[in-house]
Write a structure and sequence with these properties.
Elements lengths: L4 E3 L5 E2 L5 E2 L1 H13 L2 E10 L5 E9 L2 E7 L4 E3 L9 H11 L2 E3 L42 E6 L11 E7 L2 E8 L7 H6 L8 H5 L7 H16 L5 H29 L3 H22 L8 E2 L2 E2 L5 H27 L1 H7 L7 H7 L3 H6 L6 H4 L20 H22 L20 E8 L4 E8 L5 E7 L2 H11 L8 H8 L3 H4 L2
Parallel strand pairs: 3-6, 7-8
Antiparallel strand pairs: 1-6, 2-14, 4-5, 5-6, 9-10, 10-11, 12-13, 14-15, 15-16
């Protein structure tokens, strides 16, 4: 462990404390950790003040975070050859900074944006980027094999994404997922030196609209660490409660969507109504049904009074029995079980190799939850959420959602029991510590969200790295379709319910 620096979630450190290793030592160190019980939280490139390109990784093992870095040169032996968990991270680094991971098994573009260092990237593209998906897709050979293409334009009001199935009859042999159709340049926006600091929370909470609380909380915690801001306990309780309400609303919506995919309409309608009730609870806190405008560096932007807390607790009490009843109906219907069980299975071993997080990981038996491994805010008051069904199929992913809804209902009720009102913080600019580093993690409703910030010698943001849980989990959806009927795709897709925009930064 001499080559790694142990760090804490949401605690700033000087950049000079981060070990700088020879690449061979760096590679050996991180591969050893990840091939054991570890996983990468962040792995990215950045240019320092002297325009030297550096690699930096944040790893987790058990309940400890580590950071280390190196200077890679223009190419390096791909870590993916040893550990599949680095697969997408290395593709992203190659696209953003033109560093080639030699021997990478599937080096293609991620978001189709211009390379930040040179006129032409390693894919041979100049300033005019190709249309996403304009490359040779993987093909399964055979006279009986046919392709089915879905998207990128979809029938619903959703972001663009392309799915290409290689099939024999109805059986899916391989699914290739292509995203990157709506790259927004979120990280580049957050790094702009002329951007007023008050605008960054607006960008952060818009990274993924259904995870506004998760991303804005990570952003706020990072700024608080770099600016030395303390958040009072009453505000921490409100922020943690908002994160759990966001979880409840989305999990309820997902269970309803799964009902729709198997034509079980009574729970679909009932769960849709209940989802609206919990979105309205975010409206009660934030004046916005997705929680935007609530969390800001230093605390919360709006007052939360006894009246609001009482209203939320009363609504939880009123809806709890109905949620239990409709879930009992859903999970006892033999027609539903016939579609859910043994459909879209991702084994525990495959989930671990891919590095799945959140609901997708826990449903396959991976025991990882940021709330218990790296608690922040008022997470210490929540207690662990146990998962009874971990077979890795649609039924397991739905069951994890059901268990988390029950756990979060009790958590919000407990968090909002405090009598003291939460006072808003004044909007102001907070100078950030110079030449510093911080990483923040939170368990958003899809899983591990992480923001990583580095500042330069003036305290300006040098690198702002965002990671949504969907970054880990899209590969899991592709694997879940192996040897499934193509008609099961909507069901598998909804059981993961991943974010296009959270991935397509």
């Amino acid at each position: 462990m001499d080559n790694l620096l142990a760090i804490d979630n949401g605690k700033a450190i000087p950049r000079s404390d981060i070990p700088e290793l020879d690449f061979s030592v760096f590679r050996e160190t991180v591969v050893q950790i990840v091939k054991g019980a570890g996983s990468p939280v962040q792995f990215f490139a950045y240019e320092d003040e002297q325009k030297k390109l550096r690699l930096l990784t944040v790893l987790r093992e058990d309940r400890q975070l580590y950071v280390t870095g190196c200077l890679p040169g223009d190419e390096y032996p791909a870590l993916t050859r040893e550990c599949e968990k680095f697969h997408l991270f290395e593709r992203e680094i190659a696209e953003q900074f033109g560093v080639r991971p030699t021997g990478h098994p599937w080096l293609k573009m991620v978001r189709y944006h211009a390379n930040q260092r040179q006129k032409q990237d390693i894919f041979g593209n100049d300033y005019r980027q190709p249309i996403p998906g304009n490359y040779p897709y993987f093909k399964v050979e055979g006279d009986a094999v046919h392709e089915v293409a879905v998207g990128p334009v979809h029938a619903g009001i959703i972001e663009p994404g392309h799915f290409r199935f290689q099939c024999v009859g109805e059986k899916v042999l391989h699914l290739e997922i292509q995203l990157g159709y709506q790259h927004r340049g979120v990280e580049t926006l957050l790094e702009q030196k002329k951007l007023h600091p008050g605008r960054r929370p607006l960008i952060a909470e818009s990274i993924a609209g259904d995870t506004a609380i998760g991303h804005s909380l990570c952003h706020a915690q990072a700024i608080e660490a770099l600016a030395g801001l303390e958040v009072e306990e009453s505000s921490q309780r409100i922020r943690s409660a908002a994160l759990e309400i966001e979880r409840i609303a989305n999990h309820i919506g997902d269970l309803g969507a799964l009902c729709g995919d198997v034509a079980f309409t009574p729970p679909l309608n009932w769960l849709g109504r209940i989802r609206g009730e919990f979105l309205n609870l975010l409206l009660t806190l934030a004046g916005n049904r997705f929680g935007k405008g609530l969390i800001r560096p230093g605390g919360i932007a709006l007052p939360v009074t006894t009246e609001q807390r009482t209203l939320i607790r009363e609504k939880i009490s009123a809806e709890r029995a109905g949620i239990t009843h409709v879930c009992d109906l859903l999970f006892s219907a033999h027609t539903v079980l016939a579609r859910f069980e043994h459909t879209g299975t991702v084994s525990c071993g495959d989930a671990d190799r891919l590095g799945l997080v959140g609901v997708a990981g826990r449903a396959s038996g991976l025991d990882y939850d940021v709330r218990t491994s790296f608690p922040s805010e008022a997470c210490h008051l929540l207690g662990p959420c146990s998962n009874q069904r971990t077979a890795g199929d649609v039924y397991s992913r739905a069951s994890v959602r059901r268990e988390e809804i029950s756990h979060s209902l009790a958590a919000v009720y407990r968090l909002l029991a405090e009598e003291r009102d939460a006072v808003p913080v004044a909007a102001q600019t907070h100078p950030l510590a110079a030449e510093s580093f911080v990483v923040t993690l939170n368990e958003a409703w899809r899983g591990e969200v992480s923001h990583c910030l580095l500042t330069d010698d003036t305290g300006a943001i040098l690198r702002y790295k965002v990671k949504d849980p969907s970054f880990h989990n899209w590969s899991g959806l592709a694997l879940a379709l192996r040897n499934q009927g193509i008609s099961d795709f909507p069901l598998c897709n909804k059981s993961f319910n991943l974010s296009y925009c959270g991935f397509d930064l």
